[in-house]
Amino acid sequence: MTLHAHLSPLSIADYLEGELRSQVRHEYVAGRVFAMAGASETHNLIVGNLYTVLRARLRGRGCRTFMSDMKVHVEKMQAFYYPDVLVTCDPDDTEQYHKSRPCLIIEVLSPATETIDRREKLLAYQALDSLKEYVLVTQDRMQVEVYRRDGADGWWVDTYTGGEGVHLESVGLTLSIASVYEDVL
Prior knowledge:
There is one protein chain. The protein has a single domain (about 40-180), classed as Alpha-Beta Complex (tt1808, chain A), CATH 3.90.1570.10. The chain contains 5 helices and 13 strands. The chain has helices at about 10-20, 40-60, 115-120, 120-125, 175-180; strands at about 25-30, 30-35, 65, 70-75, 80, 85-90, 100, 105-110, 135, 145-150, 155-160, 165-170, 175. It is of the alpha+beta class. The protein has a 6-stranded mixed beta sheet, with helices on both faces.
């Protein structure tokens, strides 16, 4: 016997309401919902390192730093994602449970999400007019890729390895690779 089920797209309002009650985080893309998996110790340490350094250095500069539980709304793609770290410096980016005007988004790559981070999220995040940089951090070696907006519609990437400093133009900071990978590598 074959059972057929019709899956109707979920509205944004229903998704947002459900996320407030859910024990599991879900990302939302064009009416579809995708559960988020847990992260490794290495992933958590890197995210914590990035958040801590950014939060400390941006304090008092009109920017707010968030990690893991704050959604980013990409209206043009009808999507909500949970980036590992995001920074918004826009005083009008005031939604309580999601931000829509980040200047910096960071994803720590993991085997389960690397393809999504490199393709789907790269394209979606580039649709955010406010976004100046999208950063991908590798877990198993010291490598950080920074995608930067070049003018109105172009992007380019810088790859940092080893003892270099990672320059983040969006927030006017240079982070040491050592601070990103502290207690990891």
